Amino acid sequence: MTTASRWFAAISLALFTLPARAELVRHWEDSFSAAEQARLTGWVTAVHESVERAVAPFPFDVDLHFHRAYYARSPVPWANTRRSGRQGVNLHVDPHYSHVELMADWTAYHELAHLYLPYLGRRHSWFAEGFASFLQYPLMKSAGVMTEAEVQSAYSRKIRTAAAKYDLGDMTFIDAVPVLRARREFPTAYWGGAVYFLNVDRELRSSGTALVDVLRQFVTCCRQRRYELDSLVAELDRIADNDAFSRQLTEFRTRKGFPDYPTP
Fold first, then answer.
1. Contacts of 80 (CB under 8 A, 6+ apart)
2. DSSP string, 105-131
3. What pLDDT shows up at residue 147?
4. Could you tell me which residues come within 8 angstroms of residue 209 by beta carbon, excluding any fewer than 6 positions away?
5. Running DSSP on this structure, what letter comes out for residue 13?
6. What does the alpha-carbon distance between residue 104 and residue 153 come to, in Å, rounded to a whole number?
7. Using the 8-state DSSP alphabet, how is residue 24 labeled?
8. Are 62 and 85 in contact (CB under 8 A)?
9. What pLDDT, on a 0 to 100 scale, did the predictor assign at position 6?
10. Is the dihedral of CA 224, 226, 228, 232 positive or negative?
């Protein structure tokens, strides 16, 4: 084989073995007109692109299942992730809303954010929901529908509201989460969990990095692996070269009352 032939064979093999870029796969579970499908496709494509731009490309195909919502008070009144088998999201959408209104709805950003971490089970819902709540606003900033000032204002508003409603000060927040869920006080549980990630991010930034930088590396190297909560936190500490994740987890496991986060 000549040198040129060997070079061509090596290049061909490298190109053949490169992983294909993960796709966004749409499933129309209810009836949508062609115009509605086009509008919803344009919306989810723009959201997906802004999410990947802010963090990293997903290392797997993402399946989006569209369900029709009728006369809803918001563009996406309900959504949830699909974790069994292929990773994806169920989106209950009212297609009468405009593209601008769809883009300004937080729900799709929140649900896609979930997929950047492996499923840890219902017991650790505070961690998963806190993560998605923390990440949704920076993702909306990436999409151009929020400014940094609006992101910080939204964090402060949500956390102040959650803290004001919290009345389980004799328990650690983690122990209180099942009670909050039973009462259907989901926003309080979500935003208490978000404090964990806001505090980790603040610690990381003080040493010259950010949580999203750690997340980007995690997605690239390790997202396809299985983790329990403690092993995931240890992995994130390793990537960050910082024990902020584990120290904050210890704080959440031992400190009673609503998590401490300074808000203006």
1. 89, 90, 111
2. -SHHHHHHHHTTS----GGGHHHHHHH
3. 98
4. 240, 242
5. H
6. 16
7. E
8. no
9. 44
10. negative
Q: How far apart are CA 32 and CA 133, in angstroms?
A: 29
What's the pLDDT tens digit per position in 95-154? 999 999 999 999 999 999 999 999 999 999 999 999 999 999 999 999 999 999 999 999
Q: What angle do CA 31, 35, 39 make, to 5 degrees?
A: 100
131-to-50, 69, 115 alpha-carbon distances in Å: 17, 27, 10
What's the pLDDT score for residue 85? 83
DSSP characters over 57-99? --SS-EEEEEEE--S-SSS--EEEEE-SSS-EEEEEE-TTS-H
180-187 long-range contacts (CB < 8 A, ≥24 apart) are 181/125, 186/129, 187/158, 187/161, 187/162
Instruction: Please enumerate in sequence order all residues whose Cβ is within 8 A of that of 60, keeping only pairs 6 or more positions apart, or say none.
Output: 22, 86, 87, 224
Structure tokens at 37: 């499908």
Length in residues, the chain: 264
Q: What is the pLDDT of residue 2?
A: 54
Place of tokens 């929020």: 146
**Is the per-residue pLDDT at 14 higher than 90?**
no
Residue 78: what pLDDT? Answer: 97
